[in-house]
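Re: export button greyed out
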Amino acid sequence: MTLNLAEIFFKQSDLMPEHPAILGPHEDTSTSYGALRKEIETLAEQLLAAGIHSGMNVGLHYPGGQAYIAFTYALWVCGACVTPIPMELATEEKQLIFQHIAIDAVITTTDCQLFAALALGEAISLTEQAGLLNLNALRTPPAELAGLNPAFIRFTSGTTGEAKGVILSHETIFARIQAANQGLHIDANDRIVWLLSMAYHFAVSIVAYLSFGATIVLCKNSFGSTILQAASRHQATLIYAAPTHYELMSHDRSDQTLSGIRLAIVTTAYLRPDIAEAFYQRFGIAPNETYGIIEVGLPAVNLDAPKEKRGSVGRLLPRYAVKLDSPDENGVGEIMLFGPGLLDAYYQPWKSREVILNQHGGWLATGDLGFIDEDGYLFIVGRSKEMISVAGMKFFIHEVETVLERHPAIQAACVFAVKARRLGETPMAHVVLADNHEPPDEDQLKAYCGEHLASYKIPDRFHWVDSLARTASGKLIRNADKLLTSQHTKIL
Amino acid sequence: MNLPQQLREHIINRHIKDKAPEGFNDDYNLIDGGILDSLAIMNLIAWLEKHYAIEFDEGDIVLENFNSVNALVNFVQKKRAASEEPTD
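Workaround output, generated via the alternate export path:
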């Protein structure tokens, strides 16, 4: 018999219908497990009546919040799979998802460009702000997909231009949250302050909280004082946030405390030591850094030594194994993982879990570089993949280069990461002028990029060069220290 | 382009990926209206610091300084004026 994560939530709601499932974002907003279940069941009835059924894949293009949770679970009740379509992407990037992933319908805000681009007929109204559009999928799904009991397909852009949707089944997500909870120990006593994008973070977070009977605390906005007020008002026990949020909380100069917090989980990006120290000085809590990866889940959390081993994502949780591939003289190698809940498959080109693991002797190659210290703590020091992380929002360099090289005045482009104080990294581009063209100015190039790319992917600076720097073997050089003069290497 | 125009244009070009919301003007609430999330705020801070040669101090990253184009204009003007004041 197949598992459905909605059934796991329903079991919790049977056990404690009055227990709060969601608190906030407004001061007096509270939704119990029973009430959330009713909201989900009502939406599911609407979706079923609108033709959504088992085996379909539905895009979800909606802001994070209670409605996002309800839509996701309602689609699972219908037996459908969910493909998140992040709101902040450019319309062109959103349309790319529809070209690569077979999507039968989409739930979307009705006042948006995507809606206008997709609307072939009348939308079926689900709520005041959301509509359902049935679509003719632009492609057929891989034949093997139906057999996986898929819950999510997360679209990711591949390293060489091909799309690589990550498929997570209900069983896989359930295995992940159980494995993560051997370290997190989330239960009905927990109230978790939630600050991340639900389009990117849902499985080993929202699903875990609702499966283990915890309460999700939503905030009105991400300013430090707002987060602290929400944590205090709702007696939060956990914070699940990005480094940016810890920085914003550290800046708060009120007398708010975080006295009930037992875990301050940091995810999405490396936490700068000065932010960790500022947060510790302000609240007396050392943030718990983690290693989260879409293909794996949450294999490592620095639970027992967040202060002593600052900068480490901790030791592996009990059911995971790690090894380093081809370590250098400093012990730094590519992090290879194995454990429960590894991705079920890549969507395009189709690669089953078995095939993915067989490529590396039974291990999942993460593309991240790291080392393990003498006490077994894992430190992540970089990526072997060509990616940039702007405040935790990761993207492949080639996405930006492809857009730049479509500009008529650009013959070739090389995008690379530059260290930045506020954002960790920002993209910068070296560009080669095409013959018989005048170079557009920086504002024009940024405006052009903005038409095709999410804002965080737009290069912060452009530098015209005669030719792109390459190694002796012809490979593009992307090391900022080598590409920039000493004048440019200062932190922005 | 004057300061309000520059800031308005930057917000529209960089932070409103979709259609500008109905009633968008210099008093439109950028936070409640969902235009500036935490990533956008950090991006905006980095841009303001670079573009106007100002520096955010602790205590500057508060709702009051970000909740509209006009609030941003006031904040930038205040920081610029402070940096021009003679110091002992």
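Chain B is about 50% helix and 0% strand. The button fix ships in the next patch.
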